[in-house]
Amino acid sequence: MIEIELNDTICAISTPAGVGGIAVIRISGPQAIEITDSLWKGRSLAGAASHTVHYGSILDRSGAIIDDCVATVFRGPKSFTGDDVVELSVHGSVYVQKAAVKTLVDAGARLAERGEFTRRAFAAGKMDLAQAEGVADLIASRSRAAHDIAIRQMKGGFSERLQMLHDSLLELASLLELELDFSEEDVEFASRRKLLEQAQDLRGEITRMASSFDSGNAIKEGIPVAIVGPTNVGKSSLLNAIVGDDRAIVSDIHGTTRDLIEDTVNIGDFTFRFIDTAGIRDTSDTIEKLGIDRSRQAIGRATILLQVIDAANPQKSEYLQNITDSQHLVAVINKTDVAPSDEAKTMVCGAEAVVEVSAKTHHGIDTLRHALTEIAQTLLAGNGDIIVTNARHYQALVDALVPLQRVIDGLTSNLSGDFIAQDLREVLHHLGSITGTVTTTEILTTIFTRFCIGK
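^ that's the sequence the OP posted. Answer follows.
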């Protein structure tokens, strides 16, 4: 990404590429209104008040009409970027979009880089770095749950919590500095015990936020659900029934599924990423063995495991003995249209829910979908009001815990306050990197190049 130039004017198409009813072209910078007005036929935009909408035509440099459109004027600093901004709503013809942008560039604007509008908003102090990343997450959200988390981050909920942690750390640091300044005086500003309790509280809060990442990332990217069980129990048929499509090949031949088959579907407020695994059994087939190895890996990565049991031929699933406390197990008794479920229920062990279905007739599929959304709700409820979904934020929180533990150890062992203060400054550095209080050009470039051009 090029070095930020706050004195030039940028433009880009802000709506998705392709043909649509309307396309929005955004222009931002000191000359945004002047450049647009030079190509505008209609009421002059130069004297237009902020947050007003005007109908007119956009012209090319020869004066020919490119399109009739609507111009919305936002005057800085009360705009997204903090600069003057004009948004042209033109008809969605690809030709019209390209012609309008070319004319704006010919008139003195330049094409925006990826994420440059949001980067300018960050530079202007309209939002911090965590909020800017919330904008990107909002655009990419595929479910209501992911949308709600992104909205809270974009509105500053995560940043406010980080500011509270920052203020508490500053208080700790200031008390230690006072302790150093008056080390020869018989004055106690705060007992070591109280400072230790405060540091431990901070560690607990940062740890909780960091531990929410696994759930938050799953909600953002799609909760991974592995469909597991022996061969020929109906795993592929169950996948097809859940997603409503013949996604997987169904056959009575054992070992038909030899590789992982994935499909993503929204159920309620959540996106689920279903993984149909190869049936686990002893086999001499080299290709099938590879599929089984991948199945075991998928089981280890899944948030939810659907243990499929054949009602007509129930078998124990010994390969599920090593599931972790963070994984959720649902027993799915399949083929209840041809056999009773009584014996199959005896094979269930440690499942949070038991659902009887027929993948063939779709009986019980809605009940299974409901069970999945109930588990997904616990991922939200179990992590409080702040859920971390960004890997960069997670890494910064984990990095902050290392020097914070040294602070706690130092307070416990009566280490000199200047050493403890040094560790506190390191904690502040890591937390500041999340909101952009502490940052580098390299970090900014990496973050904003992940945005689309018009944002």
